[in-house]
Each structure stands twice: as structure tokens, then as C-alpha cells.
Design goal:
The chain is of the alpha/beta class and 365 residues long. It has 11 helices and 18 strands. It has 2 domains: 141 residues, Four Helix Bundle (Hemerythrin (Met), subunit A) (Up-down Bundle); 213 residues, Rossmann fold, CATH 3.40.50. Helix content is 38%, strand content 21%. Bound molecules: 5-S-methyl-1-O-phosphono-5-thio-D-ribulose.
Length: 365
């Protein structure tokens, strides 16, 4: 993505690998500060996924693959049984960071599969190329979703999106924001309604920032205002991303997505979900079997930002110790989804059939 920093424009990916070092945009600092940070080993990478230094299903998946590459390099001097043990432990550590996004689990499986034959040196090489292939696949899938999704966007439309399914949630382009970017680049008149997305405010902090960088017109709205604009006829379509999609088309995505889908249905507004193959989990029969992450009460009782002098600052909204529930995701039943925008085509209902037909039992690669 193109990022304007101190008057110059730079082309940058959300996350990339240089040997054993991972470099990435520290998303906790945006939009107030643009900072590249580094992760030197797979333990740091697991910590960064958990702390949401990077977040979003695609970026988490790529980080998982890179974490496996780091682990392989860390164990390069061990004998084969020790190497295998080390890699399995690393896989377990990376898996335990965030439970909902399917991309993470698929990425780790791909790296483990790649490491299953050959000498230690050959296995290390195989894991490195698989991790890099995951990143490149992610990039290409995002680009392709832009091309296919753009065909669903008319010349003058107002689009609502929730959370951040943009370049920052992947390597570049994003899922929901990829078609929006392309439509804008082609000169279509787009206006994006950005839900702020409490509690971590990925909409306010990240999506608004991405749209600003690209010059795409948008309005930031509080989560509770989506229904207001839909009912007034000011929203023509909704496009969101996904963290995991079950075989029947039920969608786990950022908390609040379900409400938007029901509201869109009530107001006869098309509701699209953009997601690559890596987000579909055909082992989940339906949304009931998707594990939903619950995060710290701290995210609800307080908020992070900068003060008037632009110094990082946290304020309390509720008292410390307030009883809190904080599910990070919800499940939108397939019946509310108009279509899926994937890199292999637009999937229409009935989803049990279109998903199986498109992705079948095929490999994740
Ligand atoms: O908790 P996050 O910020 O990782 O959640 C991200 C989302 O829910 C996105 O909408 C989702 O990942 C779709 S885009 C990859």
C-alpha cells in the first residue's frame, strides 16, 4: 500500500520477512504514529499476534507462517527428532495465540506439511519457501478479490464496512477494501461508511486511516449509527471481511457484524463477505463449531489514544473492576449473506453447494 509519511509517499507491506527477522507495521500505534517494528524469533511473533501488533485474519496467517519459518531457522543445528519436536512446539505456541481466524491454522498446517520430508536443512528450506508462498498467495488473493468484487460495485455507491478488512488485515489491498480501492481508482464515485468498531476501534483507527491514505471519501460513524443510515436509504451495500467461514456459509467476523447483517437484511441492502480460500474452514460444519475469542475486560473499561499534546494516553470509561464480557467475534448466519467475494469467484447461495464446488476437498494451497 502507498503510505504518506512526512510528506513522502512510500510503498509498504503490512508485514514481511528478512531472513529470521520479521518486520511489520505496529498497528497499535496507528493512526497517530507510523512505526515499523521487528520480531526476532517465533516467541516474539506469537506475542505480537496475541497483543495485536498486527491483526486481521490474513496478516495473522502470514505472521503464523513467518513464525514457523523463524522456528525452523532457530532449530537448524539440531538433529532431526529435536528439530521436529521444536517445530511442533512452535506450532502449538503460535496456534494458541488467537483462536478464531482460520488463516492462522491453515498457515501453520501448510508449514508443518512442508517440513515433513528430507534432511533438517531441506526441511528448513521447505518451511521458508512455504511461509513466503503463503504471503504471496495472500497478496494475489487480495488483488483478485478486488478485481472480482469491483464488478459488484456500481458507479455511484455508498458502502458500509465494519472493522478493518483492508491492507492492514493482509499483506496489501485487503478483502472488503480491495474492491473499494479498485472502484475508486477506476473513477467510480464511492462513499464509505466506516463503523468505528468498539472496543479496539479498528474502523476508526485503521480503516479510516487506509481510506485517507488512498483519498477515498468516507464518514466514520459510531457502531450504533449503522441502522440509522441504512433506514434512511443512505447505504447501498455492505462489504465486510471474515475470520472463519464454515462449510454452510456461516461467517465469524468482528463483533457487531451479525447486527449489521440483520439490519441490512431488514432494509433490503446486499450484504457481501470478501474472504480468500484460507479463511474457509470446511471442517466446521456450521458457525456453532467456530471458537469465539474472548478478550481482556481492559479493552472495554478503557480506551487508548493520544492526548492534546499527541502523547499516548489511556482513559478509563468504566471503573476498573467493572464486570465485563468481551467476545471479539460473532457469527452471522449464512442466510444473511448475499454472496461471498473470493479469489476464485463470486459464490452465491446455496452456499453449502457453491463453497464445496469452488473449494471442495482441495488443498489450501
Ligand atoms: O480482532 P481483529 O482486528 O484481528 O479482527 C479482524 C476482523 O474481524 C476483520 O474484519 C477480519 O479479519 C476480516 S479481514 C481479514
Amino acid at each position: 500500500m502507498k503510505v504518506r509519511i512526512d510528506g513522502t509517499t512510500k510503498e509498504v507491506r503490512t508485514i514481511w520477512r528478512e531472513g529470521q527477522t520479521i518486520r511489520l507495521i505496529d498497528q497499535r500505534k496507528l493512526p497517530h504514529r507510523f512505526e515499523i517494528t521487528t520480531l526476532e524469533d517465533h516467541v516474539e511473533t506469537a506475542g505480537a499476534i496475541m497483543d495485536m501488533v498486527m491483526r486481521g485474519a490474513g496478516a495473522i496467517g502470514v505472521a503464523g507462517g513467518y513464525g514457523m519459518a523463524q522456528a525452523a531457522l532457530e532449530a537448524i543445528d539440531r538433529d532431526l527428532p529435536e528439530f521436529e519436536r521444536y517445530l511442533l512446539e512452535a506450532a502449538e505456541r503460535l496456534r494458541s495465540t488467537r483462536p478464531t481466524a482460520a488463516n492462522l491454522f491453515h498457515a501453520i498446517e501448510r508449514c508443518l506439511d512442508a517440513s515433513s520430508t528430507g534432511t533438517v536443512a531441506e526441511r528448513v528450506e521447505a518451511v521458508l519457501s512455504e511461509a513466503d508462498a503463503i504471503a504471496e498467495d495472500d497478496l494475489e488473493a487480495s488483488r483478485q478479490m478486488g478485481v472480482l468484487g469491483n464488478e459488484l460495485i456500481d458507479d455511484e455507491v455508498r458502502i458500509l464496512t465494519h472493522c478493518n478488512a483492508g491492507a492492514l488485515a493482509f499483506i496489501d489491498y485487503g478483502t472488503a477494501l480491495s474492491p473499494i480501492r479498485l472502484a475508486h481508482r477506476q473513477g467510480k464515485k464511492i462513499h464509505v461508511f466506516v463503523d468505528e468498531t468498539r472496543p479496539r476501534c479498528q474502523g476508526a483507527r485503521l480503516t479510516a486511516w487506509e481510506l485517507e491514505q488512498e483519498g477515498i471519501p468516507y464518514s466514520l460513524i459510531v457502531d450504533n449509527a449503522a441502522g440509522f443510515f441504512m433506514r434512511r436509504g443512505e447505504v447501498d451495500m455492505v462489504i465486510v471481511g471474515a475470520d472463519r467461514i464454515a462449510a454452510n456459509g456461516d461467517v465469524a467476523n468482528k463483533i457487531g457484524t451479525y447486527e449489521k447483517a440483520v439490519l441490512a437484511h431488514e432494509n433490503e441492502i446486499p450484504f457481501y463477505v470478501a474472504a480468500p480460500r484460507m479463511t474457509f474452514d470446511l471442517t466446521c460444519k456450521d458457525g456453532e463449531s467456530i471458537e469465539i475469542e474472548e478478550r481482556s475486560p481492559q479493552e472495554i473499561v478503557g480506551m487508548w489514544g493520544v492526548d492534546d499534546t499527541r502523547n499516548p494516553s489511556r482513559i478509563l470509561i468504566a471503573s476498573e473492576g467493572t464486570a465485563v464480557r468481551n467476545p471479539a467475534f460473532d457469527v452471522t448466519p449464512a442466510k444473511y449473506v448475499t454472496a461471498f467475494i473470493t479469489e476464485r469467484g463470486i459464490l452465491s447461495p446455496p452456499f453449502s453447494e457453491s463453497i464445496k464446488l469452488t473449494f471442495g476437498e482441495a488443498d489450501i494451497s
